[in-house]
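EI: anyone free to look at a 165-residue chain?
SC: sure, send it
EI:
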Amino acid sequence: MNARDTEETPERVEFAGGVYGSLLAASVVAGSAVDGTPLSADDLVVVLICTGVVFWVAHAYALVVARGTFPLIWRRLRVAARQDWPVAQASFPPAIGAAFASALGLSDVVATWVALIVAVAGQVAWAVTAAATARFSARGVVLSGAANLVLGLAIIALKTLVAAH
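SC: here you go
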């Protein structure tokens, strides 16, 4: 067992998990319409959170397996799950955005767009934070944010194109 597999491993934030989780959340929102009809805001909240949690568990498990740290003991899974928590965490802001829009009496369509915009904003924020934490130059931080904004806008464009048909 290496030091990374012990509970004494210093906690570190997996910014990649936050970027990935935000992109996942945006994709879930973009693909959530059934026959062109958006999910209700309540259903969207449930789908976002459940998908984020399922992918978090699957991703943490995959990290442990990929490291070849056998046998699969709970301690190793717990450490990976703590480190990879941003995958699930990234689904919460878009879910909260959808719930808040619904609480304000806004339509399910508006709640869906709020969730999507919040997911993309989260993706950019995770990427910028990761770049800044890694001590990228100011240009590198901006480029990281811009690249993730382009990815988020691509999801929005695809959602718009699919919704138009």
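EI: The helical segments are 15-30, 41-66, 74-83, 86-89, 92-103, 108-133, 138-164.
SC: 👍
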